[in-house]
Write a structure and sequence with these properties.
By secondary structure, the chain is mainly alpha-helical. The chain is built from 11 helices and 4 strands, in the order E-E-H-H-E-E-H-H-H-H-H-H-H-H-H. The strands form 2 sheets. A two-stranded antiparallel sheet has the order 1-2. A hairpin with a 2-residue loop joins strand 3 and strand 4. Helix 3 runs parallel beside helix 6, helix 7 runs antiparallel to helix 8 and helix 10 runs antiparallel to helix 11. The protein starts with a strand and ends with a helix. About 4% of the residues have low confidence.
Length: 308
């Protein structure tokens, strides 16, 4: 704020300062915008460079044989490619793994969020539980792998099977799903709840017919994005005992299994250049699956969002 003198000699204060002060503030604003833009472009350029390198390395390798053939120890030449380096068992294993994880997560995560937000009384115990759930969302994935190894593989005696891997990934993303579901439930206005109570609806009817339909876009978006994180995890699966290279796809909950991140890791560690190309092709397949899952989350959000 600057002080100016009018024609009568009285001093007045101007709220915006003189022209030089305004120009200096505008220059600082432009510098700040430039720094923010440069910070955003660092991530974008790094992502584009990574995608370009992966696409270049995998060019000509993502074939129908690659998607439908099991991996072998030696890649044999087949129609200009290496048919032995297939990823079919890993694709099936990842799909079954994420499907089971989605079932467990929806029941446990959404159910816990509904109880904490709609039924649990406000108090120290509820606050303590919510604080611990929020803290668990930041725990490294390798810790959940150790927990799954101790509880499911050894404690429950399941062994390194598909069911143990799905339960371990459920533990990994469960805190994230609970927190995101709670935020979606909180976003529903209390006026809608009170209106339903005013016409004689019970608490379960209000939750089922009023709250859940409004919160469904946020719940499904958070759940699918959490599953997108789980499908790319490697550390928990290594600790649980997933097969690095699986020749046959899993045929049941108690069968051994492989996953795309594990197969990509195995190919990337081999010295042959051909397997490095196969690893890049596997990354393309994994990124495609992640893209489709994120696209599904966007479509679900837009379909059920009343503002769209």
């Amino acid at each position: 704020m600057s002080v100016e003198t009018d024609s009568a000699g009285a001093e007045t204060e101007t709220p915006f300062g003189d022209a030089g002060d305004i120009a200096r503030k505008r220059a600082i604003g432009r510098v700040f915008v430039g720094v923010c833009f440069a910070s955003a472009m660092v991530g974008v350029v790094a992502l584009l460079a990574l995608l370009a390198d992966v696409v270049y390395e995998s060019w000509g390798w993502v074939t129908w044989e690659f998607l439908t053939y099991p991996p072998t120890q030696v890649a044999d030449n087949f129609q200009g490619g290496f048919r032995g380096a297939g990823i079919y068992p890993a694709i099936v294993g990842s799909i079954l793994l994420i499907a089971l994880t989605a079932i467990f997560t929806l029941f446990l995560g959404v159910g816990a969020a509904i109880y904490l937000e709609e039924y649990a009384p406000d108090g120290r115990i509820t606050s303590f539980i919510e604080a611990n759930i929020a803290n668990l969302a930041g725990v490294p994935s390798v810790v959940y792998g150790l927990l799954g190894l101790a509880i499911f593989v050894r404690g429950a005696g399941l062994g390194p099977v598909l069911l143990a891997g799905a339960l371990t990934l459920t533990l990994l993303i469960l805190p994230i799903v609970i927190v995101s579901a709670q935020e979606a439930l909180r976003a529903v206005p209390d006026s809608q709840r009170n209106a339903a109570y005013g016409i004689g609806a019970t608490q379960w009817q209000v939750t089922r017919d009023v709250v859940l339909p409004r919160a469904l876009p946020g719940i499904m978006t958070g759940t699918i994005l959490s599953l997108s994180r789980a499908i790319g995890e490697t550390a928990p699966l290594i600790l649980v005992g997933a097969a690095t290279t699986s020749i046959v796809p899993p045929d049941g909950l108690r069968s051994s299994f492989g996953a795309m991140p594990m197969q990509i890791f195995d190919w990337a560690t081999r010295p042959q250049t051909e397997f490095h190309h196969a690893a890049a092709a596997g990354i393309v397949v994994l990124l495609t699956v992640l893209f489709l899952m994120n696209l599904t989350a966007i479509l679900i959000r837009n379909k059920y969002d009343p503002r769209s």
